[in-house]
Structure prediction request, 113 residues.
Amino acid sequence: MLAKEKGKWAEELATFYLEKSNYSIIDKNFVYENNEVDIIATQENLLVFIEVKMRNCLSYGYPEKSMNKRQKDGYKKIAVYFLDYYKIDREIRFDLLAISMPKTLFHFKDAFY
Prediction:
């Protein structure tokens, strides 16, 4: 499986998990100024921006440790833009879904600020 296919598979698994956990998916792969959010969802009154990270093996480290400062800053830019553009007034949260093979999924709520 190619890297792009693995990423798509991981995002599909994450979407399935989130929907089963009572999240409503608003958008996927939302792009603003060369930054991308994997999944934007709502849960109750929260708007949640979700990064999906996957690792085939842990020799390169845990997936939850692989989000860098540039990516976090990009998520924050997108959140500000998204709230302003769509005139949304609700609390937000940044989550991270870490997927390690074989099919282990951890959901980190409030993964960063």
